[in-house]
Amino acid sequence: MHIPSCESVNINILTFEEARKKRAESAEYDREKWIYIPDFYSEYRYILGTAGKRSLITIGINPSTAEPDNLDNTLKSVSRIASGNGFDSFIMFNVYAQRATNPDHMDVNFNEALHRENMLAFRWVLEHGGEAPAVWAAWGTIVEKRDYLKRCLYDMVAEGNKYGAKWFMAGKPSAKGHPHHPLYLKKDSKIESFDIEAYLKNF
Questions:
Q1: Is 147 helix (H, G, I), strand (E, B) or coil?
Q2: For 172-197, what is each residue's pLDDT tens digit?
Q3: What pTM value is reported for the model?
Q4: Which of 24, 77, 93, 154 could be a cystine partner for 182, CB 3.0 to 4.6 Å?
């Protein structure tokens, strides 16, 4: 179980470009199959996914312990639903990049630098998503855990608009309109269009 050792502002983080180029000698996964940035376990994670020509970009709140060949139940569900909706791969991305098994342990104070690098990572994902990248909003009610997460979402949507991103959801939204978390979705769940702009107005 991963519990952050401290507020993320107190650790040294690699920029997204540094993390993308760095290759850990100890990595024991197939780099032709997996996209993993940074490619070693750390207090934060920018990207985890599989390589393909048509990826479902899935947005959670924050990463947990998943790694290549060692997916948690949420990522297993993401992989199944991506495949069941005609995608040959998935990219797991998060509104905030700090790892925390329990979202209650996320940074109390917003780490501007970590968010900035996370947005650069999101831009990279969108640039590799082809025309009209498919983005699955999958953060559930956890988005209410920290006030700064709403700001992060606004930045993500603005970035997505630059690339013509198409937003989707799966399952029934919460009473407050939050898109369903992947963990408790049926295996054959289908994604459907999600009006992200209307959602943010009513957040």
A1: coil
A2: 999 999 999 999 899 899 999 999 99
A3: 0.96
A4: 77
